[in-house]
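Table S7 (text form). Paired inputs.
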Amino acid sequence: MIARYSHPEMQAIWSDETRFSIWLEIELLALEQMSKEGLLPPETVAEVRQRASYDVQRISEIEAEVKHDVIAFLTNVAEKVGPAARFLHRGMTSSDVLDTAFAVQLSRAGALIMTGLERAIAALEKRALEFKHLPCIGRTHGMHAEPITFGLKLLSWACELKRQRKHLREAIELVSVGKIAGAVGTYSSVSPEVEAYVLGKLGLKPESVPSQIVHRDRHAAFFNVLALLASSLEKFCVEIRHLQRTEVSEAAEPFGKGQKGSSAMPHKKNPVLCENLAGLSRLVRGYALAAMENIALWHERDISHSSCERVVGPDACIVVDFMLRRFNTIIEGLVVDGERMSQNLALSGGIVFSGNLMLVLVDSGLSREEAYRLVQKHALAAWKGGPSFAERIKRDPEIMKCLDAEKLSQVFDLQRSLRYVDYIFARAAGE
């Protein structure tokens, strides 16, 4: 089912063909170093490299009998290589191959996800600049609060994804770790030099103190970062869904020509792309939890993590890669209605400037409690209808004795409320 979401590049990383090709390269690299150590005739390496290959279907057939994937793989390679295949896998355990290959796959998948993340950041920054000074109402608890700009909203998303980029970069490094240290990680039958050679060629680092496996806290960290990234994308999509509601109508995801929103109601333009990403983020958080459960294994290793990772590894990477590509489509095509934002900003009759007025009154000498009482009375009354908030203020002598025309103008000056937008953008760029 997850395959329907996969991009060809990401799908290729998790294919059987790629997995077995990495396994074979690990075995051949190990053979090269063992030859340097005099453990096999020098000509053997060239012979094995020339003949070594595998057949995915044949491996499946062997595995059905022997019930062991690495043995099935080695058996099939031996069928191709002949007698010299006896030197393959010398002193190694299955996890030497499995965990090292998994690290290569996660590293490659992480790099693809990073590319998508970079595109998302760039798209958000571009549109943030486009709407840098477009005023809209800020909302807290879902209620009108004070004015902001739509550009600030998008810029905050870009900055959040930059934090996720930092986390992802660290997680890729953390998980780009392999091991070729034998049955319990003591190098009793394979030298550290073999490990160093193989991992160096693959661009990996060695596990500092291996057991039979690479320790799963590394993988859990990686998948938790993917869950954080997915959760951020969900956060942004939930905001777009709220802004697309009929009563708000300030922004909407793109709606393609010929697209249909509802089988029963032709007028509908539903935020299905955002809703789709909200649902997928729940999957990714579930994968992160499963990866956390894989940390605690018996002694130097059991196999309970293996079946889990066969699903979590490809699925989490495929889903997050898809989410980023779909999110880019949403942001690049986001429909923004500045006129509607202006209408919504004026909807409450100016009460969104109540905080400004309270500060002016406090600065004029009133206590905070008294200023709050005077302002709240008129704000709540204005919300019910009748004269606007500004008109009510002008009619209140108790308030007006504290204000002159200039101060009153400043209270309801939208640009004054947004005077630090450039400062915020500059600070974000500096970070």
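Next pair, protein 2 of 2.
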Amino acid sequence: MKGPLLIYDGECRFCRRSVDLLQSWTPLKIPARPSQECEGMFPEISRKDFQGALQYIDRKGRLHSAARAVFQCMDDHNIADGPLWTYENIPGAAEILEWGYRLVARNRGLLSKIVFFKL
């Protein structure tokens, strides 16, 4: 694997808009592709993983998923380093942040309508 590469569910409006928002926070474009274009390219990532969470391959080729993927991407692209530091250094933070990510992921359709005002 070679990175960086941000992989998201291209069929999910919430995911596409979230990646667009993340892209808007940095002057350098973050390489990103929909998971539908990446299936088969990364055999270590299952279809279920592609559909359930953001995947990020960092510059060293390490794979990160879900909340960790977001924070690693933000840190690597100089958007913010505080979230990753919190994730890695505050006891219990990783578990809470991953739980929050799963909660959002399970409710993407509704959240897309609320957050992006598309009722």
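The radius of gyration is 14 Å.
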